[in-house]
Amino acid sequence: MESETAGAPGVIGADPEQAAMVRAEGLVKRFGEFEAVRGVDVAVRKGEAFGFLGPNGAGKSSTMRMIACVSPRSAGELRVLGLDPDTEGPKIRARLGVVPQQDNLDSELTVRQNLQVYGRYFGLSRAHVRRKADELMAFAQLTDRADEEVEPLSGGMKRRLTIARSLVNDPELLLLDEPTTGLDPQARHLLWDRLFRLKSQGVTLIITTHYMDEAEQLCDRLVVMDAGRIVAEGSPSDLISRYSTREVLELRFAPGEQESAARGLDDLAERVEVLPDRVLLYTRQGEAALERAHARGVRPVSSLVRRSTLEDVFLRLTGRTLVD
Q1: For 2-16, 32-46, 175-189, 229-243, which range has the lowest pLDDT when averaged over its residues?
Q2: Which residues on adjacent β-strands are paired with residue 20?
Q3: What is the pTM of this model?
Q4: Residue 274, Cα to own-chain centre: how many angstroms?
Q5: pLDDT of residue 183
Q6: pLDDT tens digits, residue range 29-47?
Q7: What is the 3-state secondary structure (H, E, C) of the chain?
Q8: 3-234: CATH superfamily
């Protein structure tokens, strides 16, 4: 982690009075000679929504699997709910809820049966899981589908059911790995609403996501991972303030014209980025920069002034090159 985050909220040793649901120091995960997680320090406070962002291969899922006690750490210290995953994994898993990237529901069972059967794995009584299933179906807005098989349900319904199933044991900590991947906007927003409700009830959330708007909406704090390391940590607004500007001016030009246009714009912004289809000017005052560009005879095909987003931060820290 960068030195500027030392002593920041959530970093190991920052505030011993804040009880950490997850605490890692120098956490490492190796697969043979490949080091997927390379010395991660992180602490997740009770009751917060904490995010892991990063490109493919950054180490997010490997970190989540160690926290979920399904993959042993190779080195470093890790405590989950104050317990050591190496020796107390079953105790930790009994208090966790896990939502995997891919739904692993039993497609031949009904919605209700998926919840009741899963609840029995935790040793809960039949009467308890019946009541809990009714409660969770209402929470996930699936009551009217209670006795239907899972297979024909929509992707959004299956995702809501997977989240509902993860809550059968009333977990203190809920791990969500890419919870809304592949869902349409309406389904994503409905899931966000369910997760907000869980957080308001005191459930601690740890989320990995590729969606920057999702991270901005859901996460109180987050870390950006790249190549197995944490490269930045903070709240979404903190990260935007630290690594970007208040506004971004996007100028689109005809093909092949953006390089020459950008050469006369360097002094109008704190940073200028030339992309294949447009030029981005990172500035405090987008409209003022646009007026000055026009005064210099710059005539883009179109222009847009927008606020900086977490996506701007993410791309600056991890690059625009596709990682397979």
Answers
A1: 2-16
A2: 45
A3: 0.86
A4: 28
A5: 84
A6: 999 999 999 999 999 999 9
A7: CCHHHCCCCCCCCCCCCCCEEEEEEEEEEEECCEEEEEEEEEEEECCCEEEEECCCCCCHHHHHHHHCCCCCCCEEEEEECCECHHHHHHHHHCCEEEECCCCCCCCCCEHHHHHHHHHHHCCCCHHHHHHHHHHHHHHCCCHHHCCCECCCCCHHHHHHHHHHHCCCCCCCEEEEECCCCCCCHHHHHHHHHHHHHHHHCCCEEEEECCCHHHHHHHCCEEEEEECCEEEEEECHHHHHHHHCCCEEEEEECCCCCHHHHHCCCHHHCCEEEECCCEEEEEECCHHHHHHHHHHCCCCCCEEEEEECCHHHHHHHHHCCCCCC
A8: P-loop containing nucleotide triphosphate hydrolases (3.40.50.300)
pLDDT digits (tens, 9 = 90+) for 264-274: 898 999 999 99
Pairing of strands 204-208, 173-177: parallel
Backbone angles phi, psi at 262, to 5 degrees: -65, -25
| Cα dihedral sign, 300-302-306-311 | negative
Among positive and negative, which fits the CA dihedral 115, 120, 123, 125?
positive
In angstroms and rounded to an integer, the radius of gyration of the C-alpha atoms of the chain is 23
Side chain identity at residue 308, one-letter code? S
pLDDT tens-digit profile of 282-310? 999 999 999 999 999 999 999 999 999 99
- Rounded to an integer, what distance in angstroms lies between the CA atom of residue 228 and that of residue 241? 24
Widest Cα–Cα separation across the chain: 75
Which fold is adopted by the domain 245-307? Alpha-Beta Plaits (3.30.70)
User: Domain locations in the chain?
Assistant: 3-234, 245-307
